[in-house]
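In this supplementary section we document a worked example of the pipeline. Step one takes a protein sequence of length 424 as its only input; no multiple sequence alignment statistics are reported here. Step two produces a three-dimensional model, which step three serialises into structure tokens for compact storage. The input and output of this example are shown verbatim.
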Amino acid sequence: MIKKEKLLAVVKKLLSSKKRLAVIVILLFLAGFIGWKLTASKKEEKVQPQTAQVERGIIISSVSASGQVLSVNIMSANTKASGIVSKVYVQDGDLVKKGDKILEIDLDFQGQQKHAQAWSSYLSAKNSLESAKLTQYTLQADMFSKWDDFKELAESDDYQNSDGTPRHDQRNLPEFHIPEKEWLAAEAKYKNQQAVINQSKAALNSSWLDYQLTSPLITAPAEGTITSLMFAEGMSIGSLDTGTTTSNQKVATIKTEGTPIVSVNLSEIDVSRVEIGQKATIILDSLSDKTFTGKVIGVDRIGQSTSGVTQYPAIIRLDSSSEEILPNMTATANIVIEKKDNTLLVPSSSVQSQGGQSFVILFKDGRQQSVSVVTGLTSDTQTEIVSGLDEGDIIVSGSYSISSQQDGDSPFGTSGMRMMRMPH
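The serialised model returned by step three reads:
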């Protein structure tokens, strides 16, 4: 009897455990089913894409390149003199003419010595030029003399017929050719002396410029505005001598009339599209709130290769100047390649490609369908539509992928298209 009661107790305990297990299984099943329904419900939610309207407008295709402002319309007032600045005649912003005084120096011993040597070199070059001119006069007289001798010989009865025609049989003799060659040689020496004179003039000009650089008085090399004046009264100047020569030392710069020039580097892809005369807009990093305009005036189509990358410099002259534009400022230029007006435009993000064809997603009659398009110019944000759309059409403006579904038609041969927003 006792054994029977124990057996019944064990059976009841097992049944109780199975019920709890069944309840747990059912709860887990319900939780999984609810989660699945929620996920499926989210997947079935329809995507609400961003849309845009096909409009007419202006599109500009351009090439972007970076570079810097060149040192143009600026001349330096330099000196090789050494000593102490005794007088300054100008200050930054002053207008000067060529030859106007900038500053004066009390020369030290080295400065005086260099100035005297430069003067000596100038006088020597001047004497060489006068000597070259004298030699030319002597050679000219000798040439005329030999010409007269040859002319008289050629017109004699021995070498000329009575009717004035030459006697060729006699003119082949050495007695005729020697005077002729002497005249030609004298003429060649005379003409060659002109080259010697030109060289002497260049040497004289060089020595004069060197003399001016050692002068205690520094003057403006051109008309313009004084900028970057580097010295004041009492300052030492030109004290660094390298031994045999002294490098030019800049005293000030003079800004002349003219517009700035920007040099930018084009890539291999863009250089073939850039031509002289194309318009450009330029932005300087230091003046980012201002935009300047200009025109391409030169393109280097040989290029320069650095670390396997080839760049092609292009020169752009700005249409106007500004006191804020300084040499070596970093610049970015957008060169206008082509411009079209009254053309159909869509956001560039709406145009997709597949199988070598371009297409957009069009909303029509309450449905979304893929439409093949032919594109034209492209700017940073817009693309020209040559054919495939009409003004006023509503299209998807974001990025979408294409997969097949059971309704709709596709220009790519599938039975239909379904849009999925691409993750960003």
